[in-house]
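Researcher: Can you fold this with 2-phosphoglycolic acid in place?
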Amino acid sequence: MRKQIVAGNWKMNCDLAETEALLNALKSQIIPESTQVMVAPPYTNLQHAFQSVKDHPITVAAQNMHQAENGAYTGEVSAAMLKSVGIKHVILGHSERRAYFGENNALLAEKVATALRHDMTVIFCFGEELTDRQHGREFDVVKDQLKHGIFQISENDWKQVILAYEPVWAIGTGETASPEQAQEMHAFIRRTIAEHFSEATAKEVSILYGGSVKPGNATEIFGKEDVDGGLIGGASLDAESFMAIVNAFK
Ligand code: PGA
């Protein structure tokens, strides 16, 4: 059975004191056993966050990592460094990384390979831009991102992968894909995985939806057959909103 997951992508928000406050607020809540809850604070707070939630059912993920093992890459952080402070989950391919930091499918394929080599779990993000959808290219774009960004992995590696479909036009805009649009794309993603790998793998992989998920729309989106949860940006910075989303599964 695939997992239900709600992951909070804090992006470049929350200093140490704010991280502590948000984590304390989350820790005071009951986390349903059926749902895996993750938070992804900025690099500087990962070690603190990991220690803080050690005895709680909250997983801490990184928002990015470099593809190389180590070396002269000023400002970068490696998989081994993340692992050394307890982090085993990493978000890769977020649309902001693609748009502002030039991350393309080929680079992401390298990052995915490095993360898997270090036995990390990858939350792999992808999704079309508004113009793609306006031109009816959303399925082609998504297929291309999957084929060139992550389909190089082995069948067995899928156990370490969570997918996050995030249409770029819905991120931070207040505009969400309708539950039907999300379901249509998630079903397409599963079919594409079945074609390239197997039905069994397609059935087992958790596919999250991301893009302006809020307490008011989460239940409807999560209620769709092929939507296994969400990657939450803005609403994950408020404990009450985030927990309402965590509790939105029917
Ligand atoms: P949002 O961000 O929920 O603020 O739209 C989602 C994301 O970027 O993962």
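Model: Folded with 2-phosphoglycolic acid in place. The mean pLDDT is 97.
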